[in-house]
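Many introductory courses stop at the sequence. We go one step further.
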Amino acid sequence: MEGQGCFGSFFQRCKPYIAMISLQFGYAGMNIITKVSLNRGMSHYVLVVYRHAFATAAIAPFALVLERKVRPKITFPIFMQLFVLGLLGPVIDQNFYYAGLKFTSPTFSCAMSNMLPAMTFVMAVLCRMEKLDVKKIRCQAKVVGTVVTVAGAMLMTLYKGNVINLVWSEHMHHSQSNSPAQAAGISDKDWVTGSILLIIATLAWASFFILQAVTMRKYAAHLSLTTLVCFIGTLQSIVVTFVMEHRPSVWTIGWDMNLLAAAYAGIVSSSIAYYVQGLVMQKRGPVFVTAFSPLMMIIVAIMGSFILAEKIYVGGVLGAVLIVMGLYSVLWGKYKEYKEKEAIEEIPEAVKEGGDHNNGRIATVMEDIEANGIEMPKNETNREFVPVLAISAPIPQPPMIAVETPKA
C-alpha cells in the first residue's frame, strides 16, 4: 500500500510534465503535416478555418455533457474576453505565423517561436502574475533560463556547421535541395517583413496565455471555455478568409493531405492542446506551460530526420543543448516556487488542528522548509503559531440580507 501511495504521489507530480511534453510531440506532428499541405497550395486562411471547425466539433459534445451542471453564466466581460481570445489565438497568431513562414524559412520561423517563453515571462511580470525578486535564486534561475533558451534558439538559426551523419539517415537519399534556392529568392525586405509578422504572432500567442489564465479564474469550465474559443475563432477566421481570399475554389477540400492537416491540427493542436494547457496553467501558471515550447524544435528536427530525411547540423545540436539547459533552469525555478507555496499552505492546516500533538508537526514542516532551502517571508517566520481551540457554542446569527453577487 505504501509503495502504491508513493507511486501515485510521484505520478501526480509528474502529470504536468508528461502532459506538456506530449503536447510538444503533437505540435511537432502538426508542423510536418501542415508543411506538406501548404506546399501543395492550400490557403493558410482556409486551413485555420477548417482547423478550428474540427476542433469545435471534437470537443463540443464533451463540454455539453460533462459540464452541463457546472457551466458558469457568460457575462458581457467574460464574452469580451472570449472574443479577444479567439482573435489572439486562432486568428492573429496562426495567420501571422503562416504569413511570416511564407516570407522567411521554416527554420527561422520555428526558432522565432521560441521567443514565446521570454515574452510570456515578461508579460506575466508586467501583469503581476509572476513575482520577480532578483535576490532570490529561483527568480534568477528563471531569468537566466529564459535568456539561455532564446540564445539556443537563435544559435540553431544563425549557425549551421558541419552535417552530422546519423545512423538511421545514412541510407536515406534526399535528393531535393531547394532550400538554398528558396532562401536566395527571398529579398531582405521580405525577410524583415516576415520577421515582424513572426514577432507579432509570438506576441499574440503569449498574450493568449496570459488572458486565458485570467479568464479561467472567472470561467472555470475548461471544456466549455475551449469550445467557445474555438467556435468564436472559427467565425472570426471565416470573416478574415472572405476578406483575404476572393476565389471560391480555395474552400475546396477532399480526402487528401489537406483534410488530414485540418483534422489533425484541429483535434490535436487546438481542442486537446487548449484544454490540457488550461488545466496545467491553472496549477502551474502560464510560464510553466510556455517553457516547454523549445522542445518542439528539437522534436521536429528528430522527426524530420526520420520522415523527411532532413539534415542535422552541429549548430542545431549545440542550440538544442542550450535550449535544454535553459528549459531546466526555468523549470527548476518554477519547481522551487511551487514547493515554497505548497509549504506555506501546509502550515495553517497544521495550526488549525491545535494541541501539543501538532507542535511537533509544525516544527517538522519548518525543518523541511529550511532543509529545502525555501525562503520564507519575514512576517511568516517571525509569527508565533498559537494553537486554536475550537469551541462549540451557539452564536446569534445576524439577519440575512440578500446581496447581489458582482457579475464581474
